[in-house]
């Protein structure tokens, strides 16, 4: 991957954005799938899907099939959802089982990934069933989410989250009691990084979100960056309760309130096509419809601007831009992490 057209500058006042080519070249997405999504913690499902022993669900990370299961011993595991025999997918959707049976030739695996049986395999030489096991990946549950990391050398999820769990606990949001209330999927005609860039700055609020801007104290809006995440401080003019807003590298956002939480997962579908999964979680009842509708309004305003940016990035007359020191340190932080992971 040719990265010679960009050098990250830590001094924000002298830094430039990543080049337009990084948003439009399909080769960049292939590199990101391996170097970024394949080495970071990805939210893949809900913790309550695998709360009971024997429960499982199938998912994927950038096309890599994964099976998450709760074993009889109560331990949560994630392993390859591909049979070691001829490559069939082992399971789809969600379910409950004492073992995983391949639908192709009935090879059967335990919920810890060991091969238990394979029919009609007599006469096979140099074969030791005890050595056949589904490759495993790191998996952790946090609040209502299950995260998987394909990289065995990646740091634990707690290290990536840093101070976030403690800050959420301090405002009284009971993560362990939250349940999914509503989900909305949006397909956006832009590169996934365009959407992340947009989320990480409030610079566009006065022009692009007039309704939201009237509610916020824009003069107090700021972004604080940490090793693998950033926090947005966006106080409401008439706020009576605390709120927390986080982005966790590369593609996971959280909006946290004392009585509910919403998440936003950004998944690339192509170099200029992105799936955004919005989900609301509440406890003691559903999340208010008015809150969901207001989020939907903001999302549609963001979609319009992100799709406009993607079209502009294809111009022969644009390559890179400069940052507002006051307003765009979050985007600069993201570009630095992206550059770091692509060069590892």
Set down the secondary structure blueprint.
Layout: H1 21-24, H2 26-35, E1 42-46, E2 55-61, E3 64-70, E4 76-80, E5 94-96, E6 100-101, E7 108-109, E8 115-117, E9 136-142, E10 145-149, H3 157-161, H4 164-170, E11 179-188, H5 192-199, H6 205-208, H7 210-215, E12 222-225, E13 229-233, E14 244-248, E15 252-256, E16 260-270, E17 273-282, H8 289-313, H9 329-343
Antiparallel strand pairs: 1-10, 2-3, 2-5, 3-4, 4-9, 6-7, 7-8, 9-10, 11-17, 12-13, 13-14, 14-15, 15-16, 16-17
Model description:
The protein folds into two domains: 12-37 and 158-343, Naphthalene 1,2-dioxygenase Alpha Subunit, Chain A, domain 1 (Alpha-Beta Complex); 42-153, Rieske [2Fe-2S] iron-sulphur domain (Rieske Iron-sulfur Protein). The strands form three sheets. The chain has a seven-stranded antiparallel beta sheet, with no helix packed on it. Strands 11-17-16-15-14-13-12 form a seven-stranded antiparallel beta sheet, with helices on both faces. By secondary structure, it is α+β, with helices and mostly antiparallel strands. The protein has helices at 21-24, 26-35, 157-161, 164-170, 192-199, 205-208, 210-215, 289-313, 329-343; strands at residues 42-46, 55-61, 64-70, 76-80, 94-96, 100-101, 108-109, 115-117, 136-142, 145-149, 179-188, 222-225, 229-233, 244-248, 252-256, 260-270, 273-282. A hairpin with a 3-residue loop joins β12 (222-225) and β13 (229-233). The model has no long low-confidence stretch (mean pLDDT 94).
């Amino acid at each position: 991957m040719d990265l010679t057209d960009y050098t990250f500058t830590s001094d924000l006042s002298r830094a430039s954005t990543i080049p337009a080519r990084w948003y439009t070249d399909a080769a960049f997405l292939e590199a990101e799938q391996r170097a970024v999504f394949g080495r970071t913690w990805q939210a893949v499902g809900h913790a309550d899907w695998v709360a009971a022993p024997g429960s499982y669900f199938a998912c994927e990370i950038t096309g890599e099939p994964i099976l998450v299961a709760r074993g009889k011993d109560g331990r949560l595991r994630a392993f390859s959802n591909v049979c070691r025999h001829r490559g069939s997918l082992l399971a789809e959707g969600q379910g409950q089982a004492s073992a995983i049976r391949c639908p192709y030739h009935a090879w059967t695996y335990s919920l810890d990934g060991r091969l238990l049986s394979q029919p009609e395999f007599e006469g096979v030489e140099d074969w030791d069933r005890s050595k056949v096991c589904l490759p495993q990946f790191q998996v952790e549950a946090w609040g209502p989410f299950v995260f998987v990391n394909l990289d065995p050398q990646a740091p634990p999820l707690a290290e990536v989250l840093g101070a976030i769990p403690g800050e959420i606990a301090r405002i009284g949001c009971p993560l362990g009691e939250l349940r999914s209330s509503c989900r909305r999927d949006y397909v956006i005609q832009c590169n996934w990084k365009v959407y992340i860039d947009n989320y990480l700055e409030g610079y566009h609020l006065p022009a692009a979100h007039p309704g939201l801007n009237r509610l916020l104290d824009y003069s107090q809006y700021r972004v604080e960056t940490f090793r693998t995440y950033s926090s947005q401080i966006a106080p409401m003019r008439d706020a009576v309760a605390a709120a927390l807003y986080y982005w966790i590298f590369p593609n996971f956002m959280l909006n946290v309130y004392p009585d509910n939480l919403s998440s936003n997962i950004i998944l690339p579908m192509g170099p200029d096509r992105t799936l955004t999964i919005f989900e609301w979680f509440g406890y003691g009842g559903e999340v208010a419809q008015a809150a969901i509708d207001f989020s939907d309004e903001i999302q549609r305003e963001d979609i319009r601007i992100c799709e406009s940016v993607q079209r502009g990035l294809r111009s022969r007359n644009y390559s890179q831009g400069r940052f507002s020191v006051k307003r765009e340190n979050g985007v600069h932080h993201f570009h630095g992490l992206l550059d770091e992971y692509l060069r590892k």
